[in-house]
Here is the input.
Amino acid sequence: MAPERESGTRERTPAGATATTRPRAPRLDQPRPPRHRFLPEWDPEAFGRLSEKIARFLGTGRFIVWMTVVIVLWVVWNVAAPAALRFDNYPFIFLTLMLSLQASYAAPLILLAQNRQDDRDRVNLEQDRKQNERSIADTEYLTREIAALRMGLGEVATRDWIRSELQDLVKELEERRHHDGHMTIPVVPAVPAERTERSPGRDADDR
Here is the structure.
């Protein structure tokens, strides 16, 4: 019997060992560890704000003036300066390359700024739509309340109505008083003294 127990224990121990070597699932109550990335990381919001500033500067008159001044100085220097000091001879290939690079970078930056503005406009429109829905609901509620108040006020006695009713009552009382003044007052016959004076015995019989 002892060898069988030993064999049973030997067979159960690998199962426990294999269970401990299984990969553990990540815990949901703890943040994930940072992953190592080969590509550089950047803040999208910071880059978006920078692109908006650049696009805003490219759309101003100051940029056009400075760009015109730089191009004029570039051309004058490469035409009037001594040959040894010129760095971009005619037909100014380096200047063309610089302007092409500027245009190739300016177009995506402007598009990125426009996309961010579109996102903000979309959020603002959604907020305005929700605000309008709340305003419409409040207006409908106030309209129902005002209608209920009007219906309630229609059943309430107003000051003019009470005054008119009181005037009608006063007129009716005056008419009754005037009518009663002209009416003949009926005379009630006097009761004879014999009937008033009754004997005690008769009173007992009546009782």
In short: Helices lie at 2-20, 44-58, 61-80, 93-154, 159-182, 193-196, 200-206. Confidence is low (pLDDT under 50) at residues 1-11, 184-188, 199-207. DSSP finds seven helices and no strands in the chain. The first helix runs from residue 2 to 20.
